[in-house]
Amino acid sequence: MAPSFDDGNSLFNFVVQDGNGVKGMVDQGLSAVPGRYIQPPKERINKKNARMCSQTAIDLSQLDGPNRDKVAEEIVKAAETLGFFQVVNHGVPVELLESLKDAAHTFFSQPPEKKAVYRKGVSPSPLVKYGTSFVPEKEKALEWKDYISMVYSNDAEALEQWPKECKDVALEYLKTSIAMVKKLLGVLIGNLGVTPEESRIDALIGFKMVNMNYYPECPNPDLTIGVGRHSDMGTLTVLLQDGIGGLYVKVEEDIDGVGKKGEWMEIPPIPGALVINVGDTLQILSNGKYQSAEHRVRTTSTQSRVSIPIFTIPKPTEKIGPLPQLVEKEGTCFREFVFQDYMSNFFSNAHDGKKSLDFAKLP
Q: What is the dihedral of CA 203, 192, 334, 136, to 10 degrees?
C-alpha cells in the first residue's frame, strides 16, 4: 500500500529514512505537491520575474594564446561581480559530458532499493552517499531533489567504491576538469598580486567531490524549489547543466549590462559549456574581492532534469583565511580557521543564502 504523503511523518520516513527519494514519491503518482515540499512565498522562484543572464561564454582555449590578457580579464571581472561564468573549449570532451548526463539518468532510474544501499548510515563506502534535499532533519520545507555524492580519494578507490552505473564517466569528468580548475585559480590568485604556488593550489582543491543531482518532474513547480538559496563552501565549483535549465544566481551589486542588486538571473544552458562559480573559500581568500555566488534551482513540470557539479574544496586540515599580502594592505573582516570546522558548520544547517560566510567573519 502506498504511504500517505499528506502525513508529514509518513512522507519523511518513505522519502528520507527508507531512501525512496523524491523520485520514489513521484513514481507513486502525484497530482499535487505534498505539504512538506511547499516553500514559503519568499523562497519560491517566479520564472517570469527573473531575467536571462546575457553573459557570453568565455573561450578558455584563448588563455594559451595572444588573447590571454583579455580572457584573464573576463574571468576576473566575472568572479568579482556575479561570481558565475560559463566556459567553452575547456578541455573536457563534449562527448564525455553527454555520457555523464546519460549515466546520471541511468543511476536514478534504478529501483529505489538499489540506490538506497548508499544512504547515510548504511552506505558500504564512506566515499559514497545517496540522499535527498540538503539537511532534511533541519528543513521546514524540503527540496525537490535526490542526489548521489562521490568523494574522490584516488582512482583505485573511486573505481572500486563509486556506483558502477556512473563511476567511469564521473571519474573521467573529474580528472579532465581539474586541469581547467588549476588554470582558472592561477589566473584568479595571480590577479591578487600573489604568485600562485602549485602546492598551495593543490591544498585549496585537495578535497574533491562529484555529485549527480536529479530533479524529478513536479506537479506544481511554482510552489517548490530544487535547491534553496545558498553559496558553495569550496574554492571553485564546476557544473554541467542539461538542456532544460533552472539555475538562478542572485546579483550582489548593480552590474552594468548584467543586472541590478537583488535581481535573480537565470543561467541559460549553453551546449558544450560548463558553468563555473566562486565558492566561499575563494571569497575569504581574496579578502572579499571575489564573490561567492548565492544561487538556487527551480523545478520543472514537464520532465526530470539532471545537473552534475564537481566541488573543489580545501583539505579539511588546511588553514583558510584572507591572503596575508591583502590583509597587510587593506585590513579584513575575515578570520583564519581550519577548514574542517567550516565544513561541519556548513553541513549542519539548512540552506539560508550566504549565511554560511558568517562563520568566517570576525566578531
A: -60
Could you tell me if 146 and 109 are in contact, meaning their C-beta atoms sit under 8 angstroms apart?
no
Q: Which residues contact 202 (CB under 8 A, 6 or more apart)?
A: none
Query: Cα separation of 97 and 242, whole Å?
Result: 9
Under 8 Å between Cβ of 213 and 128: no
CA distance 115 to 109: 9
Q: How far is the first Cα of the chain from the last one, in angstroms, to the nearest whole number?
A: 54
Neighbouring residues of 354: CB distance < 8 A, sequence distance ≥ 6: 230, 231, 280, 292, 294
CA distances from 13 to 4, 165, 226, 278 (A): 11, 26, 20, 35
H helices present in 46-86, as ranges: 68-80
Instruction: Give, for all 363 residues of the chain, the pLDDT tens digit.
Output: 456 787 778 899 899 999 999 999 999 988 899 999 999 999 998 877 778 888 899 999 999 889 999 999 999 999 999 999 999 999 999 999 999 999 999 999 999 999 999 998 899 999 999 999 999 988 899 999 999 999 999 999 999 999 999 999 999 999 999 999 999 999 999 999 998 888 889 999 999 999 999 999 999 999 999 999 999 999 999 999 999 989 999 988 877 767 788 889 999 999 999 999 999 999 999 999 999 999 999 998 888 999 999 999 999 999 999 999 999 889 999 999 999 999 999 999 888 899 999 999 998
- For the chain, helix, strand, coil in percent to 5 are 35, 20, 45
Amino acid identity, position 153: S
DSSP 134: S
Listed in sequence order, the residues at least 6 apart from 39 whose beta carbon sits closer than 8 Å to its beta carbon are 141, 223, 224, 225, 228
Spatial contact of 283 and 192, defined as CB atoms under 8 Å apart: no
What whole-number distance in Å separates Cα of residue 79 and Cα of residue 11? 41
| 3 state DSSP class of 150 | strand
pTM of the model: 0.94
CA distance 282 to 311: 13
